[in-house]
Amino acid sequence: MATVVPLKTGSGAATVRTAADRYLDSITVANTRRTYTTALGKVVPALGEGRPLSAVADDEIGQALEQLWGTAAVSTWNARRGAVGGWLAWCHESGLQPPHIPAWCKRMPDPGSDTPVRSKTAIDRLIARRDVDLREKVTYRMLYETAARADELLGVNIEDLNLAARQCPVKAKGAKAVRRRGQAREDYATETVYWDAGTARLLPRLIGERTRGPLLVTHRKPGPGKVLTPRDVCPDTGLARLSYGQLRALLDRHTRVGGEEGTGWDPHEFRHSGLTHLGEQGVSLLLFMAKSRHKSVSAARKYFKPGAAALAEVTSLLAPSDSQR
Question: In angstroms, rounded to a whole number, what is the distance separating the alpha carbons of residues 273 and 275?
Fold first, then answer.
């Protein structure tokens, strides 16, 4: 267990690296120290080793976690988030005035746990709200109608879209680079997702005059210290691709309960809700798996959890016939 040792900083300018090293030195359990060293070994350079810890903003912590492990397995995300959270808590007790992990950068539920299913009415009302910008309207509607994973849609470029056919390829979960004659290429094995009229009405308005680059972009240009690949920047506007962490923060802001951060929906709930609604409508197993793009029945089954209305409707089939009433 880590022991809190107050740091005598004099000017109060303990650096990110100094605070991390002192924290790791205070951990007496070898396995814990090894695990936390792995996590902080990546977070510290991302934040800037020589910066005063007190100058780091909360959102910078969230962005670093999201960039490093935003698409990792749930167990990995939770472990790395826990390591960073432990470090920041220790720094707080040591009087270093560290940042906090932002509320939108929350611990992820275990894969086997229940994911909330939002009603179609609730999703429609969210997208119809005036305080929800067009970019978010497109994102939320597209996530629901395609039943795609959030990171898949965030990686889509405008040139990938087939607006007439209402479809586009996405880099599938776990996809590996395609190789030709032993040479790695930039393209990946892809899968196709499909949307309907709701998304089709909104997409042209969002794209406007753009013909290439990321479909979903931020509203501001990236700062001078942010390093991005050319594929993640719109060549016409200079705007960066919207990240998973930014999407999660926006959705939390639109759906939080009582104004409390961290109580809103998760982007994955659109996929889960869309697939559940399809299951409630009696879609065949083959079509359901084609839409969800699952490879096994057991993996698809967890996405189908009928709601109260569907259970009530199917129960009506057990009612006595008219002749017996």
Answer: 6
Distant-in-sequence, close-in-space partners of 92: CB < 8 Å, separation ≥ 6:
98
Q: pLDDT, tens digit, for every residue of 181-210? A: 554 445 667 899 999 999 999 999 999 999
Q: CB neighbours of 250 closer than 8 A, spacing ≥ 6?
A: 136
Q: Which residue has the tokens 């629901």?
A: 144
Q: What is the dihedral of CA 88, 90, 95, 101, to 10 degrees?
A: 20
The beta-carbon contacts of 109-113 under 8 Å, at least 24 apart in sequence, are 109/74, 110/74, 111/74, 111/302, 112/302
Give the three-state DSSP class for 177: strand
Q: How many CA atoms lie within 13 A of 31 on its CB side?
A: 0
- Burial string for 7-20 (b: 16+ CB within 10 Å, else e) reads bebeeeebbbbbbb
Q: What is residue 6's predicted lDDT score, i.e. its pLDDT?
A: 46
Helix 285-292 and helix 268-280: axis angle, to 10°? 170
- Give the pLDDT confidence of 310-323 residue by residue, as tens digits: 778 778 888 786 66
Give residue 204's Cα distance to chain centre: 24
Which SS3 state, helix, strand or coil, does residue 223 take?
coil
Are residues 196 and 142 in contact, defined by beta-carbon separation less than 8 angstroms?
Answer: no
Tokens 């607006």 -> residue: 163
User: For 91-105, 106-120, 228-242, 273-287, which range has the lowest pLDDT when averaged over its residues?
Assistant: 106-120
**Which helix (H) or strand (E) element contains residue 168?**
strand 167-171
pLDDT at 179: 53
- 233 strand-pairing partners: 240
Q: Which residues pair with 219 in a beta bridge?
A: none
Q: For residue 68, what are the contacts with CB-CB under 8 A and spacing of at least 6?
A: 42, 43, 46, 80
Q: Determine the Cα–Cα distance for residues 111 and 257; give it in Å rounded to an integer.
A: 23
Q: What is the mean pLDDT of residues 166-174?
A: 86
Distance between alpha carbon 17 and the CA centroid of its chain, in Å? 28
Strand partners, 184: 179
